[in-house]
Design goal:
About 60% of the residues lie in helices and about 15% in strands. By secondary structure, the protein is of the alpha+beta class. It folds into three domains: about 90 residues, GHMP Kinase, N-terminal domain (Ribosomal Protein S5, domain 2); about 45 residues, no CATH class; about 140 residues, Butyryl-CoA Dehydrogenase, subunit A, domain 3, CATH 1.20.140. The strands form two sheets. It has a four-stranded mixed β-sheet with strand order 1-2-4-3. Strands 5-6 form a two-stranded antiparallel sheet.
Length: about 290
Amino acid sequence: MIYSMTGYGKSELIVADKKIHVEIRSLNSKQLDLSFRIPSSYREREMEMRRIVSERLIRGKVDVYIWQENTEGSTKARIDGKTVGEYFRQMEDISEEIGLSISGADLWNALVKMPDVLVSSSPETISDDEWQVVKEGLIGALDGLCAFRQQEGAALQKMFVLKLDNIAARMNEVEKFEPMRVENIRTRLTERLAELRGVDYDKGRLEQELIYYIEKLDINEEKQRLRNHLKYFAETMDGPIGQGKKLGFIAQEMGREINTTGSKSNQAEMQNLVVMMKDELEQIKEQVLNVL
């Protein structure tokens, strides 16, 4: 079966006094393109995170977001009393000097916004226990993303099967006009020759030239190759994961046969059917870019 490159997964876990959030989003890309937005204390584990993600996700533009949320009653910041006191004394001196009266509430609001008043007490490195929780959350988010990709891939495969059937049906309709096309060619050439009064021609040679001309317009090979490509596309979808590029190549070959059929079709009904096949194939080409 096929998987989509579009996906989303998330997980939330609690360790000590923190809630760890992990979100992973993916879009289509020609190769694996990883982007991480994580707390600074997790940077030392980033390479290991990349390894975990790259082992699960073959292709796609993948964004990994990890952030922390303090649980109720906990904080990772404290007020530096010594710094606040120094700021307070300076502000009192300046207020007296310029004759400005500041209320207690105004003074406090100004103090807490001053640099270095709030000091983070978060560790610069991640503990082993916290890393195990983060790792578990990362794997959980990857599981969710892969399930999403599988669901989207199933929808894509259903759409592809419908489009393949439509192309095959249009090609079968083309066959109905082939006998009529040959007869129309024969009639048109005969009528043109009849208009050339006083010109004698070899009817045997005419038949030979007519056969040669009709053979040049024969589309049996194109029909057979297109049917083979349709079958191969369907078989590839049921193969192992990661066949997106291969499906794209098969779609290109299908386009060649349809285009050649169109160039050989000198009848309006056949050309209309070719346009319909091209429209179905174009929808396949657009969506195959999302296949893993």
